[in-house]
Amino acid sequence: MNYTFQFRPVWARFEQLLDGAWMTAQLSLATLVLGMLLGIVAARLLTGGPAWVRPLVRSYVELIRNTPLLVQLFIVYFGLPSLGVRIGATEAALIGLVINLGAYSCEIIRAGIESVHRSQVEAGVSLALTPFQVFRHVVLPPALQSVYPALSSQFVLVMLATSVASAISADELTSAANTIQSQSFRSVEVYAVTAGLYLAMAIGFRALLALIGLVLFPRQRRALMSLVMAR
After folding, report:
1. pLDDT tier at 205, thresholds 50, 70, 90
2. Cβ proximity of 64 and 105 under 8 Å
3. What pLDDT digit, counting tens, does each position of 136-178 carry?
4. Contact 132, 178 (CB under 8 A)
5. Is 3 part of any domain?
6. From the CA atom positions of the chain, what is the Rg in Å?
7. By C-alpha distance, which of 183, 164, 159, 185 is closest to 175?
8. Burial, 105: exposed, middle or buried (Cβ in 10 Å; 0-12, 13-18, 19+)?
9. Are the C-beta atoms of residues 95 and 122 closer than 8 Å to each other?
């Protein structure tokens, strides 16, 4: 093999990759927040909503979980303009990713809600709390704590899945890498550096999510401190 690695063309355009990585980070964080909210609402409707709403939510979840993300992005990006709704590639990517994460997080959160013991709900009702207050203060916190590791993994997967948005020309990291590759013809070098950036972002994202978990769930923080002190 006579291939000679040349990373100079990549480093010359490294700022372009960083701009794409920054867009990926912004897209990921926005998707995390909005997709999480959508998942909580969907899980709430699925476990305690009106009877006529549950089949609709279940259909949404099954549809999204059993179709490719790329097809969903195409429907949003190419389908909405045919209905008269004009949106940019980044906005279409955000909408598609939020809808996708909402379906997956709905199932995860639903499992957490169903793990909350019925006696806790009854205790909240006995204190004259409204159904919303019971859900907000009694059910949701322990439900999220029990499934937070699974949610964190799903969030990281969504961050990596933002690369699919390059297919609709969203200005994220993979799109920037494709542009640089088409200009430099150094495929191995460009995508090796891009993979390294994704790896660094995934590790950073996991660390951020772990920190958020320690802040949101005091019991988990106390357990970690007890473990550290025991050592």
Report:
1. very high
2. no
3. 888 888 899 999 999 999 999 999 999 999 999 898 999 999 9
4. no
5. no
6. 21
7. 164
8. buried
9. no
